[in-house]
Amino acid sequence: MLQVTLRHAFPGFALDVRFEAPPGVTVLFGRSGSGKTTIVNAVAGLLRPDEGRIAAGDWILLDTARGRRLPTHRRRLGYIFQEGRLFPHLTVRQNLLFGRWFAPKDAPREDMGHVVDLLGIGHLLDRRPGALSGGEKQRVAIGRALLSAPRLILADEPLAALDEDRKAEILPYFERLRDEVSVPILYVSHSAYEVARLATTVVALKDGRVLRQGPAAQVLGDPSVTPAGAREAGAVIAARVVAHHADGLTELSAGGVPLFLPRTDLAPGSPVRVRIAAHDVLLARTRPEGLSALNILPGTVHEVRSRGGPGAMVALDTPAGRVLSRITRRSAQALGLEPGVAVHAVVKSVSVAPQDVGGPG
């Protein structure tokens, strides 16, 4: 369990955070300027904070109260940047071995063959970076970080420089990294769907402070946690694949309620997490009939939150978990929505994009 406490003042901005990063992927989530990269730089030793302590048990990276600061080169961190930053004159194999060269002799090491298989880069080993796509470069960069035998991996918005197709290519590899590798990951993102897909734990940041931390379903289902833009808001529900149908839809069971999505590649019986965007959820006081939408989740209003504009965010408790709906304040008033009111959430099957469906984590 990595424990992080940091205080640092910049002109016009003050960072004051305290959080814990358990095993798995801990995502630092928030808008630009919320302090995400500043935290990662402090963990990496690239920033000397005014005050702070960063430690996991007896592994102490920083303790300003005791005058302790482990130099960056001794922190045993793997760093994945927005771009691969591979050595252009070396082959993929040589780039991977370069990471291994930095591994301490007595440190537990990842097997290179396992890493290559995990990332699907066996066919790339003899190529140079100039012949790789952006997604392939990032997979090699991940492998190089793993082979350095790190105690912690830092990933600073590693998908930000990729287009949507390359992001969709890389996300499953980060899921495998989360599920199959024991090294904890501190991951920076302002993308709600990346958080929904990858996070074991979410640390939501706002203006240099921790707004909330906890499992992805809890944090993203909190209407007070607002990503960069209302259209990014959405909650995460847990489900299980039931069957694939001939008409191109996959049927899930979400808390015992059937949920139909565009076909996925996951086998029947597989657990999944699904992000449902708040702007794609309609609400009705009674169960609607005669609609084209296939997904209707019964629920109870947990909270209605408005920030003064025309919109309102409604948090619902359903059998599948917390769901958010973004509607107008006028609609919320017309429906008489308040905590405890029974409603039905309506979700179009085609509104759930492929990148919003992933493994359970």
TrEMBL record:
SMART domains from the UniProt entry: AAA
Keyword ATP-binding: yes
GO cellular component: membrane
PANTHER family: ABC TRANSPORTER I FAMILY MEMBER 10 (PTHR43514)
Signal peptide: none
Origin: domain of life: Bacteria
Keyword Nucleotide-binding appears in the UniProt entry: yes
Source organism of the structure: Rhodovulum marinum
Coiled coil spans: none
Protein name in the entry: Molybdate transport system ATP-binding protein
Pfam families per the UniProt record, alphabetical: ABC_tran, TOBE
InterPro entries: AAA+_ATPase, ABC_transporter-like_ATP-bd, ABC_transporter-like_CS, Mo/tungstate-bd_C_term_dom, ModC_ABC_ATP-bd, Molybdenum_import_ModC, Mop_domain, P-loop_NTPase
Alphabetically ordered keywords of this record: ATP-binding, Cell inner membrane, Cell membrane, Membrane, Molybdenum, Nucleotide-binding, Translocase, Transport
Domain named Mop: residues: 290-356
Domain ABC transporter, chain residue ranges per copy: 1-232
Gene Ontology terms for molecular function: ABC-type transporter activity; ATP binding; ATP hydrolysis activity; molybdate ion transmembrane transporter activity
